[in-house]
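Sample entry follows:

_____
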Amino acid sequence: MQDTRQDASQPVSDEQLQDWRERALEVEAEVAAAIIGQQPLIRLLNVAVFARGHVLLEGDVGVGKTTLLRAFARAVGGEFERVEGTIDLMPGDLVYHTYVDADGKPRIEPGPLLRHGERLTTFFFNEINRARPQVQSLLLRAMAERSVSAFNREYRFPVMLVFADRNRVEREETFELASAARDRFMFELRMPTPADSATRRALVFDPAFHDVDELLQRVAPEVLPWKQMNVIGAAIQRSVRATDALERYVLDLWEATRSPKSVGVQLEGVDMDNLVLAGASPRGVMALTRAARVVAWLAGRTHLIPDDVRAIVPFVLGHRIFFTPVYELRRAQIADALIEQILDRVPTPR
């Protein structure tokens, strides 16, 4: 197999970065041609693409998560793969599958992780919490290293991003994601049901939104030279700078996730001394700065401002603060309020 690995340290000119920014904004416009009423989410997914981070995407059944990811995969380029999480899915099922051919002979073929080779760019794991922990562990390695070992060799997916969603309604035959698994996701995002009446009317009564395959034809294919994604992602990180005050602000936010009471956070009905089991990890804060730099880059700036950080804190740090067991059961109610107060209480640099 040809080695398509990229040297992320190779120089990228300012003109090239500007060209890529225009392409990135074009990706958003193309996806928005097929997905209406989700512009904030489209921007956050685009940030994740260029920050090279995986995403845990949640939303009600039928809200359009798969369609959204297929639209992104088409605009970005490369290959898209979807896997359904089930109780009987085994780790090997991601790597290979066996069958008996027409001649009655057993055959082995590459599974969903391997069948596209290095062209795999978007891997969607639907209802990840229905899959056994062993399957989740294999996915963790693929996410962390973008590679798996099989058939006595290593297979690499250098530009692959993993998107997953959880079944938040049914509890039977599900396995909650471990802390380490959730920490691998750069963002934890919610895809809401559109509330705007015009958007709702279009989704229900416009036949164009009823045929997904035809709808996706609105999206221009391969807007990006996707094989260079890692090079450009690294160049973005090098091109966007932060002042000492901004760096101090990020570190203060990090400390507040570990000890929210120290910055004056108080939540009604919560014992703040016994709320947080563990704050955000170093990986989480690195993800925060990576994503913030992409936010600044998409805005056409080469320096970070506090609003770049604040814009993505809820989606990067909210799922990385782990509560003691008595409060973990109320995570949905507590986490958002906690992050909101942290942002209010930690002084913002001028």
The CA atoms of residues 132 and 234 lie 34 Å apart. The radius of gyration is 21 Å.
